[in-house]
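FW: tagging you since you asked about this chain on Friday. Here's the raw sequence from the shared folder, copied in full. Didn't touch anything.
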Amino acid sequence: MSTTGTTDHEAAGPWGARDGREAAGRLLRAATRSGAHLVAEAAALVQGWAVLADPIAGAVYSTPASAAADGVHAAAAPQEHPYCVQLPAAGAILVLAPAPTTPAEHTGHVAATTAALLEVRGQRAAELRGEQMRLHTTLIRLLLAGHTSVVTETLGRNTTTATETPGRDTATATATTGTGTGTGTGTGSLCGNRLTHVTVYRLAGVDIPAAHQVLWRAVRPSLDPYADACTLLGRLDGELVVAELHHGGDDGRVLRLVSRVSERHRLLAGMAGPLPLAEMPTAHSGAAAARHSATPDRRIVPADAVGSSRLAPLLPTVPYARWAQSVLRPLAPAHRHLLLVWLRTGSKPRAAAALGLSAGTVRARIRELARLLGADLEDATAQAHLLLALRAPGPDDGGNAALPPGLSGPDRLEALPDGLLDTEAVRSWAYGLVGGLEPHLRIALACWLRHHARTAPAAAELHVHRTTLTSWLGRCAEHLAQNLADATVRAELHLALRATRNGPDDPAALPRRGGRTYRRL
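HL: got it, structure written out here
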């Protein structure tokens, strides 16, 4: 008897035990092949369509493919699809839409048997999942260590794509690795020759273990029909790292899944890439820097949006680029990357975590870079100028990188070129950003920024309680419509305050009202 053809229920008649045994046998044989074959066989038995719908990934398996949207909608709003039979199966929802002539008993039996077999397959996959997750974590660590050829060769040996055709419908089986079912798809030639770029996501939050499981289930089937990407998921140092390997084009599928998981599990995420595989460490640290700019209102932030300046495009291009190149001339590209990650994350421990270094190593390197630059990098103004220099346009961005004739040495970081910030465009930007702050809020914000966003020393200098300063900073953030937790936002606010001040923003000039909270100087 064929396992994929029509059923024996075209003619109306009572449904009996023999029919149930035949249906169960067909479903069991299909389940030994793949989940896709199992769902396809269920659709054939009920003479309608069948969809396994996941709340994150959407349609995991669908027969026919055109029924995917209906199946997902039926799983989300069952009251609107009373003719469909729905059962939970392996963490998803099995939706069957039988033909009008199919007996209800037969449909119920097929649905229950299919759901039970999906659960069995899910249990088997769960047994292999731990080993696979360890494999993925190892591959991510190898990429971070620069062993890109080892990873691509491993994927080339262990990743295959199988396309199955049960009856008239086409279903795509999950890709398999040497240890079981994997999350990537592709062929040996694909992994060896076409996986040239990587996009990295780093997620942090209290619900990382659950998010890992959900994203693991969601990413695997969603990428199966595509032979252009391979996704690795691993937990490193309490974070969830997702590395999507592809051939230069990121189609956004993993981004959408990471965004949904971040919202559902209240995680904060950073994204970097696409970058060449050899630059995996840069993408990894860039994603961490971006994550520190994420908020509950914007849970996933691309690295190219971190530090994106509204000020830099307003500066005169030629003097700006020349000053930046002169200031940064003593630094190697690796030095600049370390400084950029430090300034974007806002602290040395966070930069160390992003770069995979110890905090002591980062502190030592920054001290050495401060010596090379001849500047006090603990000064808030020097940090703001350094971030401005690191974001300056290069020769490929339209900037003139040629140094001024007769330049004997690098410019000083503490001093900007004459006229760089003294333009009408910059003044308009600065007044538009901080011009409406009340005097006491402006003084408090400037003092807090000078203390590198540390509330306790700023409150001590202002002679106010820390709770009072925290309240004022909240009002500043609301008035400015800015995320003060973002280190790059703080750098621009510091420059804007300096560009708009009429006198020193001195804590001694803070208006006093007396009482316990506001002590008089």
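FW: The longest strand covers residues 268-276.
HL: agreed, and The chain is about 50% helix and 15% strand.
FW: great, closing this out.
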